[in-house]
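Re: beginner question about structure tokens

> Can someone show what the tokenized structure looks like for a real chain? I only ever see the sequence side.

Sure, here's an example I had lying around. Input first:
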Amino acid sequence: MKGNSVDCNVAIVGAGPYGLSAAAHLHALGIDTHVFGEPMEFWSTGMPPGMILRSPRPASTISDPGDKFTIEVYEELIGAPPVKRIPGDTFVSYGKWFQKQMGASHDRRHVADLRRDGSSFRLTLEDGTVVTSKRVVVAAGIGSFYTKPQVFSDLCPCRATHCYEGKRFAEMGKRIAVIGAGQSALECGALLHEAGVDVEVIARIPTLRWIGMHPRMHNIPLVSKVAYSKHDIGPFGISRLVAYPNFLYYFPMDSRDKIRKRAVRSAGAPWLIPRLEGVKITTGCNVVSAKEVGSEVELKLSDGTERRVDHVLMGTGYRVDLERYKFLAPELRNEIKQLDGYPDVREGLTTSVPGLHFTGAPAGRKFGPLVYFVTGTEWASNELASWFRRHRN
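And the corresponding structure tokens:
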């Protein structure tokens, strides 16, 4: 870095839906913006193969300022008929197309190290190249945040993986235990069963939960419009609260946490129900011990029964923890005011470190669960753009 010169005004770390959307919005303001990272990497390499987006169509578009790059525009461009549920590979292709339209500069190299450098930031890329930026937007997604229950910690990665690690089903064997009761676990159970695998889903909750199982509530004139938002996140009433992050921000922390947890509790989309016919599902149980026995994994359950499987696949979700973002230099990470691993973001998704912003799931503790989903790119990118418009200097 020479004097106070910088290579760009805004550097965006991450090229998933939130990074690409933020870049499109900031570029539209005429702000010199550079995106770093492989486009849609987590979606293409970390998510289970064959997955379908849980979000409804109106909530599956990456936001841009003029709504010029919607999923519908992409489908029309490639001649694909619109489908009710968007396949994961279609969404990945759409995101890569969006990246080419966004206008901002894009570098596929990953950021290996991010730290303060005076009043600016220094980003060291994976090949050692150093880039300086006046401001940084972290949009690195949830790929680093997956959680694995402690009981599986001693198992070899070849025998136990999280569904967000992108391991191919064909590499897991023919007897697989899926742990969890959310969309990822249940969809993995369905996909494995359809692939001819002997699969069992093991869930702690006593009964599986399904999203939107009260369709009548969605069709009551006026009432449904008031109680549900287009984002379709959370049950009656909570859905509408979640749609207004700036309003939710002023709720007491304990109330905000209860709303967030209720909106995203473990549940599956009802269209999975027929696909899970024939799948063994054990509820009200958890694994109390797991050990390798030769080429198998022996599981002991809380009901006293045992299982022998080739692989354990964990659909146990994720937990935001900035410690897991290894590209954050320790001194920078320690400077960020946090709330149980979440950055304490404020207006404009700003942090306690001047010039540093977080978008996507890390903003969820303060602004609610809308930012856990693709549909949240609309609010988050507009929030960023509004802040940058007012703070250009």
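Each token stands for a local structural state, so reading them left to right follows the chain. Residues 150-209+267-314 form a domain with the FAD/NAD(P)-binding domain fold (CATH 3.50.50.60).
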